[in-house]
Amino acid sequence: MTRPPLYLRRPFLAGLLRQLPLLAVLVAVAVGLGMVAIEHWRRGLLVVGLALVGAGLLRLVLPVRRVGFLAVRSRPVDVVLMAGTGVALSVLALVVPGS
């Protein structure tokens, strides 16, 4: 006799596990914003930019059933918007002259 899948046995736990990629991205963004708040703005923005690039990569490689709320639009649009914004933010943080 086979066990029913996790989403039938424990739907709340399955829903939480599905959001782990989003949680990882949000934690990285929070760390970056914390760095900005303690006046390490260049490093903080770089961390936020790299978190967005990571979100784009997660959206690219994970199947729809595992990506959770990182899937908002179609896969190509999500990847281009998240990764493009992350690259632009990272480049901007590196190009702006320091004080």
UniProtKB/TrEMBL annotation:
Record organism: Geodermatophilus aquaeductus
InterPro entries recorded: DUF3017 (IPR021385)
Transmembrane segments: 20-38, 44-64, 76-96
Protein name as catalogued: DUF3017 domain-containing protein
Keywords: Membrane, Transmembrane, Transmembrane helix
